[in-house]
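Design a sequence for this backbone.
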């Protein structure tokens, strides 16, 4: 036997990705086993993928969401030309058009409004169920305090972003804000987007919209999202345009933006 003392066990190498990983949900510096992912990261990936698939196929809890929205104002529930979720996923064109009954219901409520809000289930109904009401609870009082005339809130099932154009046209509102569930990702199955359009119509393109993406507590928080929406709406009304020609320069504290005087 050797009289030499046993060597201490080798310590694990430092994790050079640890600091960066704390700043993002992105999958970076994942552990590996040979040429493959280690079991832990692989199972996490498979779980995230399953959650994203479930989010796409989930049905909107219309009663719950409508109840939450009614606490903030009058609500109109309408539908697109899509009859079921599988058709919605295969026929985006039908999701951009309203049913005849919905068009008639909106025409009956047409008035003199400054802005219309449409809440649409989109590709993640859970996103609008969770995030739409908290965002509207902050942005609507700010607009009403500035004497904006807000149309009845519209809850649209099985719709796409462009369906908001018809909502604004039928209600006779010059601009529309669409809150919609975004395509689920592997780190965010419940992300909501806000699409703002000035004077939308049948010929409106995506280049004419402003988008605030990734609205959720782990992305753009409710207060920041509400501040951005209010700021962009003011800019749209002042400049009579939206989309690529209107830049979002709202990088300021949310409280300052939301409390802005209507005379500023």
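Sequence:
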């Amino acid at each position: 036997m050797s009289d030499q003392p046993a060597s201490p066990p080798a310590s694990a190498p430092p994790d050079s990705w640890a600091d960066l990983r704390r700043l993002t949900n992105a999958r970076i510096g994942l552990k590996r086993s040979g040429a493959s992912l280690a079991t832990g990261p692989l199972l996490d990936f498979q779980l995230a993928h399953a959650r994203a698939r479930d989010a796409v196929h989930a049905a909107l809890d219309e009663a719950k969401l409508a109840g939450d929205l009614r606490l903030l104002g009058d609500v109109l529930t309408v539908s697109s030309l899509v009859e079921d979720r599988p058709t919605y996923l295969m026929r985006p064109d039908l999701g951009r058009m309203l049913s005849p009954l919905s068009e008639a219901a909106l025409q009956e409520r047409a008035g003199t409004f400054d802005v219309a809000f449409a809440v649409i289930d989109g590709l993640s109904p859970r996103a609008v169920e969770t995030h739409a009401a908290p965002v509207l609870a902050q942005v609507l009082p700010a607009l009403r305090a500035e004497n904006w005339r807000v149309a009845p809130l519209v809850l649209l099932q099985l719709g796409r972003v462009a369906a908001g154009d018809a909502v604004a046209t039928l209600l006779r509102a010059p601009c529309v804000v669409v809150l919609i569930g975004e395509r689920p990702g592997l780190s965010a199955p419940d992300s909501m987007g806000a699409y703002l359009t000035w004077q939308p119509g049948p010929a409106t393109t995506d280049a004419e919209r402003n988008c605030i993406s990734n609205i959720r507590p782990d992305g753009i928080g409710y207060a920041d999202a509400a501040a951005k929406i209010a700021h962009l709406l003011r800019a749209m009304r002042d400049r009579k345009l939206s989309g690529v020609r209107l830049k979002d320069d709202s990088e300021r504290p949310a409280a300052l933006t939301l409390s802005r005087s209507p005379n500023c």
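The CA atoms of residues 19 and 183 lie 29 Å apart.
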